Amino acid sequence: xxxxxxxxxxxxxxxxxxxxxxxxxxxxxxxxxxxxxxxxxxxxxxxxxxxxxxxxxxxxxxxxxxxxxxxxxxxxxxxxxxxxxxxxxxxxxxxxxxxxxxxxxxxxxxxxxxxxxxxxxxxxxxxxxxxxxxxxxxxxxxxxxxxxxxxxxxxxxxxxxxxxxxxxxxxxxxxxxxxxxxxxxxxxxxxxxxxxxxxxxxxxxxxxxxxxxxxxxxxxxxxxxxxxxxxxxxxxxxxxxxxxxxxxxxxxxxxxxxxxxxxxxxxxxxxxxxxxxxxxxxxxxxxxxxxxxxxxxxxxxxxxxxxxxxxxxxxxxxxxxxxxxxxxxxxxxxxxxxxxxxxxxxxxxxxxxxxx
Length: 356
Description:
The chain is elongated and about 135 Å long. The chain has seven helices and ten strands. Helix 6 (273-288) packs antiparallel against helix 7 (302-341). It has helices at 16-32, 46-72, 94-100, 103-107, 232-244, 273-288, 302-341, and strands at residues 120-124, 130-135, 139-144, 149-155, 160-165, 171-176, 180-184, 189-192, 203-205, 210-212. By secondary structure, the protein is of the alpha+beta class. It has a four-stranded antiparallel β-sheet with strand order 1-2-3-4, with no helix packed on it. It has a four-stranded antiparallel β-sheet with strand order 5-6-7-8, with no helix packed on it. A two-stranded antiparallel sheet has the order 9-10. Among the domains are: 16-72; 115-212, Lipocalin (Beta Barrel); 273-350, no CATH class.
């Protein structure tokens, strides 16, 4: 998509400053364009060609509008210090920065001296408007940093380790000597978290509305599990120890409900094909040796006796034949499942099903 730069209405040439702004806007416009424009010359349909021309024009106008918003309304990039030669940034003082920045930025410079009840821990709201200060000797203060007005100041008369704002400036939490406490903006105690005990650091997770206790208690890691200072020798020893402590594969179970229960007996293994044939032949031989009862006259014909003996043999074969059919059907199902499992789950429903 191409966008032609705007020209002066009077047809005059741009000044160098105006030309620089125009070039900068043109670069920003390219960032908001939706790819290459459609080639309208090759279209034969006049109606479609007109619709696409209008749409391309709208795309160009929206890209120009977005570029102007980015240029004039969006906040500029953050500043930074760039040393020259062997100059070090940590040697630059606040007074040196205040002399170089604009007047509004220079007004934001402040110096708070609190020599008696420190050291102090500070926390700011997300907007930077309010500051909470907590002195180690129990001093708590809320300050409006826009006009540097003291909102509230209290003395809890015990050790304070950390302070953090909650979801807004109306509530803040303090890690005191024994427990963490929650106060409102007026300094009134709202809650005491006695179940957490002594806490060293506090953090509020704004996306979860949770007060998180990091570094609570003294650091006491398990050097056999996670040792941040382990040497190469300790690492090798840990690997050997973990291999020795590894559970045997037969004791690993996916179902925790079966732990501690009696292991069921294994089902009787299915006989092989030759064994089934041998058993069936033995059953047929046994059926042939069965002595038939003598019937009354008319029911004891040789044909009737032959039919009865054949029925006995078929009944002897039936269990073995049914078992064989079940085994063949199960093997077919397993083969079908294995073939389907080779495909991804999303494509299995498109697999060609062979007619049964």
